[in-house]
Amino acid sequence: MTTILKKPSVHAIIRAGLLFLICIAAFAFPDFMTNGMVYVISGYLILNCALSVVEFSVRKREGATSANYVSLVFACCLAGLGLLALCYYRYVLGLIPLFLGVVITAMGAAYLAAAAGMRTNGKPLVIVLAVFIAIGGAVLALCTFADALGFDALSILAQIFGLLTLLSAICEVAIYVAEGSHAEWNYWQGRE
């Protein structure tokens, strides 16, 4: 089991699966956005940090690049944001679009950092997805003010957030296909 968890490609699939489940929850249960989503996102951020630390330790033995360090720092910052959200849950509820926007924008930046360290043909796709995710996160943060303009903020928030988590899941799969499958092939060929 520990050998499986030491392969970075498995981490991308775990993250993609979790993001896809969050996407389904956002589309199927928009009311969930007001209460439980803070807990779900905070838990995801903390788990993502743990996976990133394990992934970094594996890649460090292979010769970590500066992009690996940047990706680790982003993951730790996001985990810190998740812990703060858990500690100050009552205050985050009032600013949930801003909280989710900051998280999604930071995830887009982390995907850009991951794309910078890629050495395969999937790099342009990951960069495009990361830019869309980061811009979408900024738009999501602006939904904080949608209520004041008379829009149904909850449905807009759920739709934008669901779309952005779906794009994040696709980005994780693209990273897996571009980097992970190559690493898997080398792993099974004994060339780690």
What does this structure look like?
The chain has 192 residues and is mostly helical. It has one domain (2-188). 82% of the residues lie in helices and 0% in strands. It is built from eight helices and no strands. It has helices at residues 2-5, 8-28, 37-63, 66-87, 89-94, 96-116, 123-142, 153-188. The chain is globular, with a radius of gyration of 17 Å.
Task: Write down the domain tally.
Answer: 1
Please give the count of helices: 8
Rg result: 17 Å
Content-based structural category? mainly alpha
Provide the low-confidence segments as ranges: 1-6, 183-192
Mean pLDDT: 77
Total strands? 0
Strand and helix order: HHHHHHHH
Distance between termini? 17 Å
Largest sheet: none
General shape: globular
Beta strand %: under 5%
Q: Report helical residue fraction.
A: over 70%
Present the secondary structure layout.
Layout: H1 2-5, H2 8-28, H3 37-63, H4 66-87, H5 89-94, H6 96-116, H7 123-142, H8 153-188
Helix pairs in contact: 2-3, 2-8, 3-4, 4-6, 6-7, 6-8, 7-8
Short description:
By secondary structure, the chain is an all-alpha fold. It contains eight helices and no strands.
Question: Descriptors for this entry?
Answer:
192 residues, 0% strand, disordered C terminus, mainly alpha
